[in-house]
Write a structure and sequence with these properties.
Layout: H1 2-6, H2 12-20, E1 23-29, H3 35-51, E2 56-57, E3 65-81, E4 87-102, E5 107-119, H4 125-156
Helix pairs in contact: 2-4, 3-4
Length: about 160
């Protein structure tokens, strides 16, 4: 502990607090074709606010900052074609915009994308659905990680 304090180390949560304040409200604009994944993205951001940013979740009126999540696009592209000439793997790509607006008058928008590959089962469509669902959440996690880094950087200014 003494060594970390002596070298000037400052946790990224301190920088995030400078940018966001002590309390945050998260507003989600749901992606209608994928509502379950949209809600999971908001839940994941709420967990990050509590654990990584070490701030609290608040109502819109009393929050120091508001983060707005817009899921701009979720797309699937063929990644691999099997011996049967059917797609065997898809790559799901997510494009998400995170906008934060704080009481100091700062408003920033960060566009981020993530991707994840998933396999297709011709015999079991439910397995394909579950694989895609998981892949979307993993791609969202990539966008969240980028957002966390950007917020920490904003707090250093």
């Amino acid at each position: 502990m003494l060594m970390l304090a002596g070298c000037g180390y400052i946790p990224s949560a301190e920088y995030a607090k400078k940018a966001l304040g002590e309390s945050v409200f998260v507003q989600l604009n749901i992606n209608l074709p994928n509502p379950e994944n949209s809600v999971e993205l908001k839940d994941a951001l709420n967990k990050i606010i509590l654990s990584r940013f070490q701030t609290r979740i608040a109502g819109k009126e009393e929050a120091d900052s508001i983060i707005i999540i817009n899921i701009n696009k979720i797309s699937d592209t063929t990644f691999s074609i099997g011996d049967t000439a059917f797609t065997s793997y898809y790559r799901v790509t997510t494009d998400v915009s995170y906008t934060y607006d704080n009481k100091q008058g700062t408003r920033r928008t960060f566009d981020s994308s993530g991707y994840f590959d998933y396999n297709v089962s011709i015999e079991n469509p439910l397995a394909t659905y579950n694989n895609r669902y998981y892949a979307i959440n993993q791609a969202f996690t990539q966008t969240l990680d980028k957002f966390v880094a950007q917020i920490s950087f904003e707090g250093q200014k």
